[in-house]
Amino acid sequence: MIKHLRSAADLDAETATLILDTAAEMAALSGREVKKLPALRGRTVVNLFYEDSTRTRISFEAAAKRLSADVINFSAKGSSVSKGESLKDTALTLQAMGADAVVIRHSASGAPHRLANWVDGSVVNAGDGTHEHPTQALLDAYTMRSRLGRLDGLKVAIVGDVLHSRVARSNVLLLTTLGAQVTVVGPPTLIPLDVAAALSEKTQVSFDLDAVLPDSDVVMMLRVQTERMQDSYFPSAREYSRRYGLDVPRLHKMPEHAIVMHPGPMNRGMEIAPEVADSPRSTIVEQVANGVSVRMAVLYLLLGGK
Ligand code: NCD
Questions:
Q1: Bridge-partner residues for 101, per DSSP?
Q2: Which of 69, 72, 82, 259 is the most exposed place for a label (fewest CB within 10 A)?
Q3: Domain holding 150: CATH number?
């Protein structure tokens, strides 16, 4: 088993499948009245969150607690980080406390890689800048597999603000490793040529959502990340929705069996219409529930569970 999960590229098909299978066993536990396993009793998991998060942070916390680990939640706001403490000094503090695993979210791409040099425990990337978010890709793959029964040969469209999306990057890596056919869709400003070239070795690139929908098993919508945009990448929110928003008429262009995904948080009415987000074809709430099982599997396997 690998020691760290910094990138979806850390996972070969065998390891990724082991995590998904273990997550399925963990999911069986969520149906029970007592949702706890003693697997990580006496181990310490630190959640180190330098960027805002709802789903990912509580999901990692629930996962660690269901495995009986001791959980320490650290958020940069209210800590010595606001006094200017560096990531390295924070890492050395965690190391002194004997963290067995550090789950980190940071605005700097590459922060988890640096951290892994400074602590003895396992490092799990919970989102670094615009770079990667590997556990999101795992929970997305898990959701596709449980809804559609397979990943090999599945046609997945990843739509929207690809440029700023660590979710897209990790999904492209993981899904192609697991045999899915990925098409990345969005406006040319949000899939610039260098990104398209880097992606197109493994995936297809399209600027025309309507052309891609009829041939997709999965349509994964991405949030437009205005907080990471210094320029204007499209004329207006309305124009963006008209070209790249998933509304009800577009939902009808998808095959009957196809599902709609979104990692959250959503801009309802922009990249996704409320009726689509709340439709039975949407797996958005399921993705959150699956996130806990997948993160349990990741912590369990990285910390040497059998
Ligand atoms: C994503 C993230 O933070 O990268 N959200 C998540 O983890 N569920 C996507 C986003 O912020 O749009």
A1: 45, 122
A2: 82
A3: 3.40.50.1370
Ligand 1 within 6 A of 133 CB? yes
How many Cβ atoms from other residues are within 10 Å of residue 100's Cβ? 20
Report residue 109 as tokens.
């791409």
| pLDDT tens sequence across 236-279 | 899 999 999 999 999 999 999 999 999 999 999 999 999 999 99
* Same domain as 100, residue 24: yes
Task: Give the separation between CA 304 and CA 222, rounded to whole angstroms.
Answer: 34
> How large is the angle between the packed helices 111-118 and 87-96, nearest 10 degrees?
40
CA gap 123, 46 in Å, rounded: 10
Task: Tell me, in angstroms, the distance from the centre of ligand 1 to residue 104's CA.
Answer: 14
77-79-80-85 Cα dihedral, nearest 10 degrees = -60
How far apart are alpha carbons 15 and 7 in whole angstroms?
Answer: 13
Catalytically active residues, by annotation: 55-56, 83, 105, 133
Hey, what amino acid is at 117? N
0.85 exceeded by pTM: yes
Structure-block tokens of residue 47: 């959640």
